[in-house]
Amino acid sequence: MDRASILGDAIEYLKELLQKINDLHNELESTPSTSSLPPSSTATTPTSFHPFDTHTAYLTFSIKEELCPSSLPSPNSQSARVEVKLREGRAVNVHMFCARRPGLLLSAMRALDGLGLDIQQAVISCFNGFAMDIFRAE
């Protein structure tokens, strides 16, 4: 397969996923909640499974705990870290963490390209700083 057909397939797949998300969102909006039912019908019928109704308080708490900036270390107070681990052959793993700034990803990719590294898998996160994990670069 050439790159154009792979890209076309990826675009079609993303469109399908977006359509499924929209369908599920519409289904959730159209589902009547148990609070809109009369009190007599809720007392006689068994409670149906509504994952968003039963776990909303827990999910809100856990998301707040994960995203609360006061509980996370500030990347500005930490120095930049770069770790490189050699693997078999000429392969390396690279882990980089530093404060987030505009253009950092582009400059990091240019530096890696300047080293002649062929990156096969990478995970990049810009949440609470900038982190890049490169697995298997040669």
UniProtKB/TrEMBL annotation:
Protein name as it appears in the record: Transcription factor ICE1
Biased composition (Low complexity): 30-48
Keyword Transport in annotation: no
Sequence segments annotated as region (Disordered): 29-50
Entry's Gene Ontology cellular component terms: nucleus
Subcellular location as annotated: Nucleus
Domain Plant bHLH transcription factor ACT-like: 82-133
Entry-linked InterPro entries: bHLH-TF_ACT-like_plant (IPR054502), TF_AMS/ICE1/BHLH6-like (IPR051358)
Chief localisation class: nucleus
Keywords: Nucleus
Alphabetized GO MF terms: DNA-binding transcription factor activity; sequence-specific DNA binding
Entry keyword annotation includes Nucleus: yes
Residue runs in coiled coils: none
